[in-house]
Design goal:
Blueprint (H helix, E strand, L loop, with lengths): L22 H16 L4 E3 L9 E4 L7 E11 L3 E6 L9 E6 L1 E7 L5 E7 H14 L10 H14 L6
Antiparallel strand pairs: 1-2, 2-3, 3-6, 4-5, 6-7
């Protein structure tokens, strides 16, 4: 499993619902958590490693490791916060993005158990960022087109590719 970067069409596709949480899904979640730790990230979604399934993992320092399978955002607060975000699939690029301060999400864990979580602050932001990946949305998509183009040019200078 390798992290896919900006320019890959996989990052623009919607991930498919996981039909059964089996040993394969458990192995995928474990490997994703290992990659997250290795690359010093705090969130990683299936599409970022070429797994086009609705799964993401989150591990914020000082908090537990979390696996979200087939997640659904149930609620988002009207109150928003602007904060700088980065992305393992767009290395070296950091942008201020406005997101809901608190959210409520429903998902299944790697044991096949459903759960509902109310999150705020950094955890809510990471969940929303990773959920975007499942929809084929990148952090750059939250920016005006002119700023997005400049950042893609910057990215291409450090990691050449055919980015659109």
């Amino acid at each position: 499993m390798q992290i896919i970067t900006l320019g890959s069409e996989l990052l623009r596709q919607k991930a498919e619902k996981i039909k059964k949480i089996d040993d394969e899904i458990i192995d995928i979640s474990r490997e994703m958590l290992q990659i997250l730790e290795r690359d010093k990230g705090i969130g990683l979604a299936g599409p970022q490693v070429g797994i086009m399934k609705r799964i993401f993992v989150v591990h914020i320092e000082g908090d537990e490791k979390r696996v979200f399978i087939n997640p659904s955002i149930l609620e988002t607060s009207h109150k928003t916060v602007k904060y700088e975000e980065g992305c393992l699939s767009v290395p070296g690029i950091y942008v201020n993005i406005t997101r809901s301060e608190t959210i409520k999400i429903q998902a299944w864990n790697e044991k096949g158990r459903p759960f509902t979580l109310e999150a705020s602050g950094l955890l809510a932001r990471v969940i929303l960022h990773e959920h975007d990946h499942l929809e084929g949305i990148l952090l750059l998509d939250h920016l005006p087109e002119s700023k997005r183009k400049k950042l893609i040019e910057k990215f291409n200078k450090t990691a050449p590719g055919n980015v659109k």
